[in-house]
Amino acid sequence: MDFSVGGRVIPGTELESCPHTGKGNCLKSSVVSRTTEQVKKDKKGIRELGRELNRKEKVLAETAALLVLKLIVLYIGLLLGQLD
What we know:
Layout: E1 3-5, E2 8-10, E3 13-17, E4 25-29, H1 36-83
Antiparallel strand pairs: 1-2, 3-4
């Protein structure tokens, strides 16, 4: 019997008697167990994605600041043009 989470069936899972308490059900899964190497690989991928996100946020902030400065210069130019 496959176990269902949020309406999605996780293949290779089944409920069995809980070995810790001796009662109720525990989820037994060959899918859930992951090796230390897989966990390290996932953490490294998350760190790389975090770095990429930070880099893109900095570029976006810089672009926004340059746009604001350009609009300020344009506005000042228009004001000076009207004062002449």
